[in-house]
C-alpha cells in the first residue's frame, strides 16, 4: 500500500517530506513505521536494479548490454511491475540466498545469485546491484581516483548508497556528549555515542527532548559538521554564510563565536531564513543577521564590514546535484542528469563570482557542495584559481562517506592575498 501511494506522487516529490506528511495516515500503527520506511527507502534505491532483474528474467538470457539498456531506462518503468514482482525482487536483493523459498522462485533466485556474482567483473552489474546507474560508473571511478580510494573504499561507498546514515546530533552548548546522551535517554530518545559522535536511532523524536527545546542540541549530518569546522572563524571576527538555507551550518559556525563579532546569513528563500531566525533564537545566538540575497550582483557590505574591507570568512555551500545525500534521499539519484549538473556548475560560478569580492585581503573563502561529482568540486576549484589569481588554495578534500557513516561532501578552503604594506 505504501509503495503504491508513493508511486502515485508527481515527479520531483521528496520522499522524506512526503513520509513526514503522510506516514501516520497510511500506516496507523506507529510501531510499524521504522521497518516500513526502511523497506520503502531500499525499494526506491534499488528500483532500477528491480527493473533490470525483471528484464533479464523475461529476456531469458544474460547477454544484455546494460549500458545501452540504462541509457533508455526511466524511473517510471518500475510502475510496469506489479507490487508482488517488486516485493520478490527486493527480497532477493536483500537476501539472494533465502533459507526457504517456494519452488517457483528457484529460477529467480538463481538469476539474482548470478547477477551478484557478476558484480566482481562487470562494472554495470556492480552499479546496478548497489542502486547506481551503470552510466555513472565513469564519474564514480574518477571520484575514486581523485580521492585515492582503495577498491575496498569504492565498494564501501557503493554499498552505502542504499543505506540511510544515522541521525547525527551536534551539541550547541558546552555540555559533554556523555551528559547529552544521559539527558536524551531520560527523554526516551535512543542514542549511541561513538568515536565519530552522537547519533539517534529510535525512540521518541529528538524535537520532543528538553535539549532540543532549549536549543542545546541540533540535528546535523556528520559530514556537514566537519564542513562547518573548516570555517575557523574566531570570536569578534566577521563571517558570511552565503547560501545559509535553514541555518544548520550557520548555527554551528555561530556556536564558536560566542555572540562576539558578526555572522551574516543570506539565502534566496525568505522562508528558510525565517526558520533560521527561529533556530538562532532558540540557540541563544544574537550576533546573526539575515536577509535575502539573490547572488545577481556583489553584496553591498554592511558598514562595519566595509570598514575592514570585507569579511574574515565567507562560506559558499553551493546549490548542487546533492549526489552526496542519496543515502538520506534515495529518490534524488533518479533526478541526477548531466544536463542539470552543467546548469548547476554555471550557477555555482555565478554565486562564487559575486561572493568573492566580499572577502577582505588576507581573509578566507570556503567553497563546499554536498556532491561527489568532480565537475562541481575539483573542476570548480581549478576554475576559481584561474579566474581569481589573488586567491590561493589552502586545502581541498572530500568529507564523509566512505570514511564516515554519513553524507558525502566536498570542501575547499582558499586564502585571499593580503594587501601589500
Tell me what you see in this structure.
The strands form two sheets. A seven-stranded mixed beta sheet has the order 7-6-5-8-9-11-10, with helices on both faces. A four-stranded antiparallel beta sheet has the order 2-3-1-4. The mean pLDDT is about 95. It folds into three domains: about 45-160, no CATH class; about 165-220, Alpha-Beta Plaits (2-Layer Sandwich), CATH 3.30.70; about 230-415, 3-Layer(aba) Sandwich (Rossmann fold). The protein is globular, with a radius of gyration of 23 Å. The protein has about 425 residues and is of the alpha/beta class. Helix 4 (about 45-60) crosses helix 6 and helix 13 packs across helix 14 (about 250-255). Strand 6, helix 15 (about 270-285) and strand 7 (about 290) form a beta-alpha-beta unit. The chain contains 18 helices and eleven strands. The protein has helices at about 1-5, 15-25, 35-45, 45-60, 65-70, 85-95, 105-115, 125-130, 135-145, 150-160, 175-185, 210-215, 220-230, 250-255, 270-285, 305, 340-355, 380-385; strands at about 165-170, 190-195, 200-205, 215-220, 240, 260-265, 290, 310-315, 360-370, 390-400, 410-415.
Amino acid at each position: 500500500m505504501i509503495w503504491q501511494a508513493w508511486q502515485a506522487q508527481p515527479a520531483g516529490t521528496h520522499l522524506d517530506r512526503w513520509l513526514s506528511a503522510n506516514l501516520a495516515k497510511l500506516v496507523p500503527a506507529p510501531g510499524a513505521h521504522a521497518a516500513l520506511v526502511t523497506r520503502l527507502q531500499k525499494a526506491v534505491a534499488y528500483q532500477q536494479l528491480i527493473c533490470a532483474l525483471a528484464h533479464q528474467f523475461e529476456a531469458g538470457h544474460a547477454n544484455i548490454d546494460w549500458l545501452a539498456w540504462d541509457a533508455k531506462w526511466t524511473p517510471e518503468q518500475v510502475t510496469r511491475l506489479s507490487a508482488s514482482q517488486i516485493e520478490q525482487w527486493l527480497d532477493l536483493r536483500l537476501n539472494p540466498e533465502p533459507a526457504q523459498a517456494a519452488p517457483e522462485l528457484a529460477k529467480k533466485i538463481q538469476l539474482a545469485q548470478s547477477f551478484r556474482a557478476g558484480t566482481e567483473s562487470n562494472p554495470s552489474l556492480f552499479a546496478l546491484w548497489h542502486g547506481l546507474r551503470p552510466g555513472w560508473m565513469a564519474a564514480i571511478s574518477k571520484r575514486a581516483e581523485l580521492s585515492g580510494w582503495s577498491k575496498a573504499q569504492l565498494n564501501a561507498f557503493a554499498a552505502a548508497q542504499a543505506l540511510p546514515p544515522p541521525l547525527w546530533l551536534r551539541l550547541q552548548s558546552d555540555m559533554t556528549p556523555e551528559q547529552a546522551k544521559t539527558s536524551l535517554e531520560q527523554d526516551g530518545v535512543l542514542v549511541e555515542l561513538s568515536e565519530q559522535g552522537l547519533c539517534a536511532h529510535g525512540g521518541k523524536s529528538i524535537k520532543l527532548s528538553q535539549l532540543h527545546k532549549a536549543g542545546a542540541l541540533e540535528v546535523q549530518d556528520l559530514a556537514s559538521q566537519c564542513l562547518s569546522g573548516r570555517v575557523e572563524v574566531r570570536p569578534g571576527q566577521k563571517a558570511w554564510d552565503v547560501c545559509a538555507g535553514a541555518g544548520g551550518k550557520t548555527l554551528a559556525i555561530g556556536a564558536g563565536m560566542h555572540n562576539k563579532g558578526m555572522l551574516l546569513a543570506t539565502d534566496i528563500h525568505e522562508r528558510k531564513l525565517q526558520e533560521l531566525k527561529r533556530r538562532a533564537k532558540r540557540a541563544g545566538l544574537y550576533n546573526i543577521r539575515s536577509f535575502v540575497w539573490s547572488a545577481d550582483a556583489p553584496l553591498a557590505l554592511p558598514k562595519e564590514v566595509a570598514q575592514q574591507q570585507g569579511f574574515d570568512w565567507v562560506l559558499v555551500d553551493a546549490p548542487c546535484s546533492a549526489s552526496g545525500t542519496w543515502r538520506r534521499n534515495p529518490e534524488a539519484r533518479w533526478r541526477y542528469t548531466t544536463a542539470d549538473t552543467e546548469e548547476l556548475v554555471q550557477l555555482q560560478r555565478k554565486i562564487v563570482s559575486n561572493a568573492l569580492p566580499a572577502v577582505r585581503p588576507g581573509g578566507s573563502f570556503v567553497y563546499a557542495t554536498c556532491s561527489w561529482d568532480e565537475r562541481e568540486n575539483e573542476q570548480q576549484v581549478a576554475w576559481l584559481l584561474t579566474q581569481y589569481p589573488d586567491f590561493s588554495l589552502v586545502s581541498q578534500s572530500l568529507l564523509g562517506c566512505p570514511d564516515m557513516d554519513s553524507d558525502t561532501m566536498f570542501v575547499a578552503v582558499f586564502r585571499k592575498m593580503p594587501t601589500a604594506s
